[in-house]
Design goal:
81% helix; 11 helices; 0% strand; transmembrane; globular; transmembrane helix; ABC transporter permease; membrane
Length: 249
Protein backbone atom coordinates (compact mmCIF):
# COMPACT_ATOMS: atom_id res chain seq x y z
CA UNK A 1 0.00 0.00 0.00
CA UNK A 2 2.82 2.39 0.87
CA UNK A 3 4.47 1.69 -2.47
CA UNK A 4 1.22 2.41 -4.30
CA UNK A 5 0.80 5.72 -2.45
CA UNK A 6 4.35 6.63 -3.43
CA UNK A 7 3.59 5.66 -7.03
CA UNK A 8 0.46 7.84 -7.03
CA UNK A 9 2.39 10.81 -5.66
CA UNK A 10 5.19 10.26 -8.18
CA UNK A 11 2.68 10.01 -11.03
CA UNK A 12 0.97 13.27 -10.13
CA UNK A 13 4.18 15.14 -9.24
CA UNK A 14 5.44 14.39 -12.74
CA UNK A 15 2.31 15.65 -14.44
CA UNK A 16 1.75 19.20 -15.65
CA UNK A 17 -1.82 19.07 -14.37
CA UNK A 18 -0.99 19.19 -10.65
CA UNK A 19 1.63 21.92 -10.90
CA UNK A 20 -0.38 23.99 -13.39
CA UNK A 21 -3.43 23.78 -11.11
CA UNK A 22 -1.52 24.68 -7.95
CA UNK A 23 0.62 27.30 -9.66
CA UNK A 24 -2.37 28.84 -11.39
CA UNK A 25 -4.25 29.37 -8.12
CA UNK A 26 -1.09 30.65 -6.41
CA UNK A 27 -0.53 33.16 -9.22
CA UNK A 28 -4.15 34.31 -8.93
CA UNK A 29 -3.65 35.04 -5.22
CA UNK A 30 -0.50 37.01 -6.08
CA UNK A 31 -2.34 39.02 -8.74
CA UNK A 32 -5.15 39.67 -6.26
CA UNK A 33 -2.69 41.10 -3.73
CA UNK A 34 -1.09 43.26 -6.42
CA UNK A 35 -4.50 44.61 -7.46
CA UNK A 36 -5.33 45.33 -3.82
CA UNK A 37 -2.02 47.16 -3.43
CA UNK A 38 -2.62 49.48 -6.39
CA UNK A 39 -6.31 50.01 -5.64
CA UNK A 40 -7.89 52.57 -3.35
CA UNK A 41 -8.35 50.01 -0.56
CA UNK A 42 -4.66 49.11 -0.55
CA UNK A 43 -3.83 51.50 2.29
CA UNK A 44 -6.27 49.81 4.67
CA UNK A 45 -5.25 46.25 3.77
CA UNK A 46 -2.49 44.25 5.45
CA UNK A 47 -1.63 40.72 6.55
CA UNK A 48 -3.98 40.94 9.54
CA UNK A 49 -6.94 41.75 7.28
CA UNK A 50 -5.98 38.97 4.87
CA UNK A 51 -5.89 36.43 7.71
CA UNK A 52 -9.27 37.61 8.98
CA UNK A 53 -10.72 37.45 5.46
CA UNK A 54 -9.28 33.96 4.91
CA UNK A 55 -11.07 32.74 8.03
CA UNK A 56 -14.33 33.64 6.28
CA UNK A 57 -13.52 31.65 3.12
CA UNK A 58 -13.48 28.15 4.56
CA UNK A 59 -15.87 26.91 1.88
CA UNK A 60 -13.43 27.63 -0.95
CA UNK A 61 -11.21 24.52 -0.44
CA UNK A 62 -14.33 22.31 -0.66
CA UNK A 63 -14.41 23.13 -4.37
CA UNK A 64 -10.64 23.14 -4.84
CA UNK A 65 -10.04 19.58 -3.60
CA UNK A 66 -12.41 18.15 -6.22
CA UNK A 67 -9.76 18.73 -8.89
CA UNK A 68 -7.23 16.80 -6.80
CA UNK A 69 -9.69 13.92 -6.47
CA UNK A 70 -10.21 14.08 -10.23
CA UNK A 71 -6.44 13.84 -10.80
CA UNK A 72 -5.96 10.91 -8.42
CA UNK A 73 -9.13 8.88 -8.91
CA UNK A 74 -11.63 10.09 -11.50
CA UNK A 75 -9.29 9.81 -14.48
CA UNK A 76 -8.32 6.27 -13.55
CA UNK A 77 -11.99 5.35 -13.11
CA UNK A 78 -12.81 6.85 -16.48
CA UNK A 79 -10.03 4.92 -18.23
CA UNK A 80 -10.57 1.77 -16.11
CA UNK A 81 -6.82 1.50 -15.50
CA UNK A 82 -7.15 0.67 -11.79
CA UNK A 83 -7.79 -2.98 -12.76
CA UNK A 84 -4.09 -3.15 -13.60
CA UNK A 85 -3.23 -2.12 -10.04
CA UNK A 86 -5.53 -4.72 -8.50
CA UNK A 87 -4.16 -7.42 -10.77
CA UNK A 88 -0.75 -6.96 -9.12
CA UNK A 89 -2.12 -8.07 -5.75
CA UNK A 90 -3.12 -4.82 -4.01
CA UNK A 91 -6.31 -5.44 -2.05
CA UNK A 92 -9.38 -3.40 -2.91
CA UNK A 93 -9.58 -1.88 0.58
CA UNK A 94 -5.95 -0.76 0.40
CA UNK A 95 -6.61 0.61 -3.06
CA UNK A 96 -9.39 2.85 -1.70
CA UNK A 97 -7.31 3.97 1.30
CA UNK A 98 -4.35 4.71 -0.97
CA UNK A 99 -6.46 6.90 -3.24
CA UNK A 100 -7.81 8.94 -0.33
CA UNK A 101 -4.41 9.29 1.36
CA UNK A 102 -2.72 10.31 -1.90
CA UNK A 103 -5.42 12.93 -2.55
CA UNK A 104 -5.04 14.28 1.00
CA UNK A 105 -1.25 14.57 0.68
CA UNK A 106 -1.46 16.30 -2.70
CA UNK A 107 -4.14 18.67 -1.37
CA UNK A 108 -1.99 19.58 1.66
CA UNK A 109 1.06 20.25 -0.54
CA UNK A 110 -1.04 22.36 -2.90
CA UNK A 111 -2.57 24.29 0.02
CA UNK A 112 0.84 25.00 1.59
CA UNK A 113 2.16 26.40 -1.71
CA UNK A 114 -0.94 28.53 -2.33
CA UNK A 115 -1.12 29.90 1.22
CA UNK A 116 2.63 30.63 1.26
CA UNK A 117 2.32 32.69 -1.92
CA UNK A 118 -0.87 34.38 -0.71
CA UNK A 119 0.30 35.39 2.75
CA UNK A 120 3.92 35.90 1.69
CA UNK A 121 3.05 38.29 -1.11
CA UNK A 122 0.47 39.95 1.12
CA UNK A 123 3.08 40.61 3.79
CA UNK A 124 5.57 42.02 1.26
CA UNK A 125 3.08 44.16 -0.65
CA UNK A 126 0.68 45.25 2.09
CA UNK A 127 2.66 44.97 5.33
CA UNK A 128 1.89 43.10 8.52
CA UNK A 129 -0.46 45.50 10.29
CA UNK A 130 -0.70 46.66 13.90
CA UNK A 131 -3.19 44.00 14.98
CA UNK A 132 -0.89 41.06 14.27
CA UNK A 133 -0.53 38.88 17.37
CA UNK A 134 -0.07 35.33 18.57
CA UNK A 135 -3.77 35.11 19.43
CA UNK A 136 -4.71 36.04 15.85
CA UNK A 137 -2.46 33.30 14.48
CA UNK A 138 -3.72 30.81 17.07
CA UNK A 139 -7.35 31.56 16.21
CA UNK A 140 -6.67 31.18 12.48
CA UNK A 141 -4.74 27.94 12.94
CA UNK A 142 -7.55 26.52 15.10
CA UNK A 143 -10.09 27.19 12.36
CA UNK A 144 -7.76 25.73 9.76
CA UNK A 145 -7.04 22.59 11.78
CA UNK A 146 -10.69 21.68 12.31
CA UNK A 147 -11.60 22.75 8.77
CA UNK A 148 -8.90 20.45 7.42
CA UNK A 149 -10.72 17.47 8.92
CA UNK A 150 -13.89 18.59 7.12
CA UNK A 151 -11.96 19.12 3.86
CA UNK A 152 -10.56 15.58 4.14
CA UNK A 153 -14.16 14.46 4.59
CA UNK A 154 -14.92 16.19 1.27
CA UNK A 155 -12.11 14.19 -0.33
CA UNK A 156 -13.67 10.99 1.03
CA UNK A 157 -17.05 11.98 -0.41
CA UNK A 158 -15.40 12.97 -3.70
CA UNK A 159 -13.50 9.69 -3.94
CA UNK A 160 -16.73 7.76 -3.45
CA UNK A 161 -18.42 9.75 -6.22
CA UNK A 162 -15.39 9.49 -8.51
CA UNK A 163 -15.35 5.69 -8.24
CA UNK A 164 -19.09 5.30 -8.73
CA UNK A 165 -19.49 7.78 -11.61
CA UNK A 166 -17.51 7.09 -14.77
CA UNK A 167 -18.10 10.40 -16.53
CA UNK A 168 -15.80 13.12 -15.14
CA UNK A 169 -18.17 15.93 -16.05
CA UNK A 170 -21.11 14.30 -14.31
CA UNK A 171 -18.88 13.52 -11.32
CA UNK A 172 -17.93 17.20 -11.03
CA UNK A 173 -21.54 18.35 -11.39
CA UNK A 174 -22.82 15.90 -8.77
CA UNK A 175 -20.06 16.91 -6.34
CA UNK A 176 -20.74 20.61 -6.85
CA UNK A 177 -24.49 20.08 -6.49
CA UNK A 178 -24.07 18.16 -3.23
CA UNK A 179 -22.08 20.97 -1.61
CA UNK A 180 -23.73 23.96 -3.28
CA UNK A 181 -27.38 22.94 -3.10
CA UNK A 182 -27.42 20.27 -0.39
CA UNK A 183 -27.72 22.61 2.58
CA UNK A 184 -30.43 24.73 0.92
CA UNK A 185 -32.38 21.64 -0.13
CA UNK A 186 -32.32 20.17 3.37
CA UNK A 187 -33.35 23.57 4.77
CA UNK A 188 -36.29 23.67 2.35
CA UNK A 189 -37.34 20.14 3.34
CA UNK A 190 -37.25 21.13 7.01
CA UNK A 191 -39.69 23.95 6.23
CA UNK A 192 -42.02 22.10 3.87
CA UNK A 193 -41.88 18.48 5.03
CA UNK A 194 -40.67 18.07 8.60
CA UNK A 195 -38.56 19.99 11.09
CA UNK A 196 -36.67 16.75 11.71
CA UNK A 197 -34.61 17.61 8.64
CA UNK A 198 -33.01 20.31 10.81
CA UNK A 199 -31.05 17.55 12.54
CA UNK A 200 -29.69 16.49 9.15
CA UNK A 201 -28.81 20.07 8.31
CA UNK A 202 -26.79 20.39 11.52
CA UNK A 203 -24.45 17.57 10.55
CA UNK A 204 -23.73 18.73 7.02
CA UNK A 205 -20.10 19.56 6.22
CA UNK A 206 -21.13 22.95 4.83
CA UNK A 207 -23.07 23.80 8.00
CA UNK A 208 -20.04 23.06 10.18
CA UNK A 209 -17.74 25.12 7.95
CA UNK A 210 -20.17 28.04 8.20
CA UNK A 211 -20.12 27.75 12.00
CA UNK A 212 -16.32 27.82 12.04
CA UNK A 213 -16.44 31.24 10.38
CA UNK A 214 -18.04 32.60 13.56
CA UNK A 215 -16.59 32.89 17.04
CA UNK A 216 -14.79 29.68 17.95
CA UNK A 217 -15.79 27.66 20.98
CA UNK A 218 -14.40 24.34 22.14
CA UNK A 219 -17.82 22.69 21.70
CA UNK A 220 -18.18 23.96 18.11
CA UNK A 221 -14.67 22.81 17.21
CA UNK A 222 -15.15 19.40 18.82
CA UNK A 223 -18.50 18.79 17.15
CA UNK A 224 -17.20 19.92 13.75
CA UNK A 225 -14.19 17.61 14.07
CA UNK A 226 -16.44 14.68 15.02
CA UNK A 227 -18.70 15.37 12.04
CA UNK A 228 -15.66 15.39 9.75
CA UNK A 229 -14.32 12.13 11.18
CA UNK A 230 -17.77 10.52 10.83
CA UNK A 231 -17.97 11.47 7.15
CA UNK A 232 -14.45 10.13 6.54
CA UNK A 233 -15.29 6.79 8.14
CA UNK A 234 -18.71 6.41 6.52
CA UNK A 235 -17.71 7.34 2.97
CA UNK A 236 -14.45 5.41 3.11
CA UNK A 237 -16.44 2.36 4.21
CA UNK A 238 -19.06 2.92 1.48
CA UNK A 239 -16.34 3.22 -1.15
CA UNK A 240 -14.69 0.01 0.08
CA UNK A 241 -18.02 -1.82 -0.04
CA UNK A 242 -18.70 -0.56 -3.56
CA UNK A 243 -15.26 -1.50 -4.89
CA UNK A 244 -15.39 -4.88 -3.13
CA UNK A 245 -18.62 -5.78 -4.91
CA UNK A 246 -17.77 -4.13 -8.22
CA UNK A 247 -17.04 -6.41 -11.13
CA UNK A 248 -13.76 -5.28 -12.68
CA UNK A 249 -13.12 -6.56 -16.17
Amino acid sequence: MLNYIKAELYRNFNRTYFWAYTGGIAILTLIMNILIKISSVGQSMNLVVLIQASAQMLMVPVFLVVSIVEMVTAEEQKNLTFKNVLSFGLSRNKFVLSKIIAAVILSLISAIIILTVFFGSGTILLGVGEGFSASLVSDFMGRMLVSTILWIACISVGTFLALTIKNNTIFGLVYATVFLVGKKLIGLLSLLVSNKFEYVQKILITTQLDKLKMELTSSNMTFAALVGVAYIIVFTALTMMYIKNKEIK
